[in-house]
């Protein structure tokens, strides 16, 4: 089974393998007012100050250049004969470079709306689920199990701060590099955690830990001179490399990538073979 850790909504989504996710034949989408769905689900906006004084903005952590206002992302699964290009994410930033709102999508349908801000100098967020009536969202034949931090608290009776749902905590090394991100419940209990370890200037190891402290995943990223991930190596439970992905990019005038093509790299009978996986497209807008 595939485990997908979504850190801006702090939801772990377990899905069936890719081969079982898509039914044969086209799917006709009913007419749904997505804008209204998103507006209805969006939590109340959070204050944007006072900030936490962290060393990087959200845009910088995403390796974005310039005064980014929004990033709209589509993806196409190239493992299928006729890849369908679907909306996957919408991120909105303020002029300080910090994310204000993020909308995540599932198979082209908005799924969660997360708002970000500050409470008492802490970086915090709240997430709202988008609901669909029967017939508004066709079934893909895919089973999903949603695992939320608030359902996995070790002390569910601890006092909570109702002004937010999740707190985001960042730790940097002496060189100003991000080495840990934590999510904490509004009770103060630590939830998911991501650590970073640097190997020279172009390699960074990421390790994801779940609500119970167990390691979810371990990945080694190889970066180019500008910090873009050109190769990603995933490790299995035994510590061996299980999958290798290679990325190539097309950039806009600001130096931000707008097309990312991802392929799987394998060795078959002593030869290196590349297999298409997916293509990600980004439409980026900027403040004047």
Could you give a short description of this structure?
The protein is 4% helix and 51% strand.
Spatial order of the strands in the main sheet?
A: 3-4-5-6-7-9-10-11-12-13-14-15-16-17
* Structural class category: mainly beta
Describe the main β-sheet briefly.
14 strands, antiparallel, barrel
Number of helices: 2
Structure summary, number of beta strands: 17
Query: What fraction of the residues are assigned to beta strands by DSSP?
Result: over 45%
N→C terminal distance = 45 Å
Radius of gyration: 19 Å
Shape: globular
pLDDT averaged residue by residue: 87
Residue stretches low in confidence (pLDDT < 50, at least 5 long) are 1-26
Helix percentage: under 10%
H and E string:
EEHHEEEEEEEEEEEEEEE
Descriptive overview:
The chain is mainly β. Helix content is 4%, strand content 51%. The chain contains two helices and 17 strands. The chain has helices at residues 34-41, 58-61, and strands at residues 2-6, 11-15, 68-77, 85-93, 99-106, 109-119, 122-129, 144-148, 166-172, 178-185, 190-199, 203-209, 215-223, 229-235, 241-251, 257-268, 271-286. The strands form two sheets. It has a 14-stranded antiparallel barrel with strand order 3-4-5-6-7-9-10-11-12-13-14-15-16-17. Strands 1-2-8 form a three-stranded antiparallel beta sheet, with no helix packed on it. A hairpin with a 5-residue loop joins strand 13 and strand 14 (229-235). The radius of gyration is 19 Å and the shape is globular.
């Amino acid at each position: 089974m595939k485990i997908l850790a979504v850190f801006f909504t702090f939801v772990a989504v377990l899905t069936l393998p890719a081969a079982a996710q898509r039914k044969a034949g086209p799917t006709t989408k009913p007419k749904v007012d997505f804008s209204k769905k998103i507006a209805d689900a969006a939590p109340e906006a959070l204050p944007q100050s006072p900030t936490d004084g962290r060393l990087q903005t959200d845009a910088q952590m995403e390796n974005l250049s310039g005064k980014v206002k929004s990033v709209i992302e589509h993806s196409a699964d190239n493992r299928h004969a006729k890849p369908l290009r679907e909306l996957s994410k919408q991120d909105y930033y303020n002029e300080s470079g910090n994310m204000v709102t993020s909308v995540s999508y599932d198979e082209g349908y908005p799924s969660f709306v997360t708002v970000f801000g500050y409470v008492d100098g802490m970086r915090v967020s709240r997430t709202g689920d988008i609901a669909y009536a029967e017939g508004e969202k066709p079934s893909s034949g895919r089973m999903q199990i949603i695992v939320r931090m608030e359902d996995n608290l070790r002390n569910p009776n601890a006092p909570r701060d109702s002004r937010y749902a999740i707190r985001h905590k960042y730790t940097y090394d002496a060189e100003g590099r991000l080495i840990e991100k934590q999510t904490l419940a509004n009770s103060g209990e630590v939830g998911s955690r991501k650590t970073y370890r640097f190997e020279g200037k172009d390699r960074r190891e990421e390790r994801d830990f779940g609500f119970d402290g167990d390691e979810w995943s371990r990945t080694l990223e190889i970066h180019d001179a500008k910090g873009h991930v050109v190769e990603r190596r995933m490790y299995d439970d035994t510590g061996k490399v299980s999958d290798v992905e290679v990325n190539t990019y097309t950039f806009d005038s600001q130096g931000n990538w707008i097309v990312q093509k991802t392929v799987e790299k394998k060795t078959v009978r002593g030869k290196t073979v590349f297999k298409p996986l997916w293509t990600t497209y980004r439409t980026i807008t900027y403040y004047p």
